[in-house]
Task: structure prediction
Amino acid sequence: MTLCPTLPFISEEMRRILAATERYKEVMPSHGVTNGKQIRGLVPLRYTGMRIGDGVSFDSEKLEGPAFFFIRKRSVSP
Result:
């Protein structure tokens, strides 16, 4: 079995992803704007190393200017 590492998106791919989220409002007028915003809200995960679950539950009040402080705690297993 050959393992292929997952590489991050290059800048051009990120531009295309963000441009596609803008098209949501045209394709799905009823809820496309909301869906596009939610997808764009996950973009910081690419740069921070946060997990998806942490990203969707992140509160903007934790932001301090352009930075934020985030602590990941591990649960203790018996």
About this structure: The longest strand covers residues 63-64. The mean pLDDT is 77.
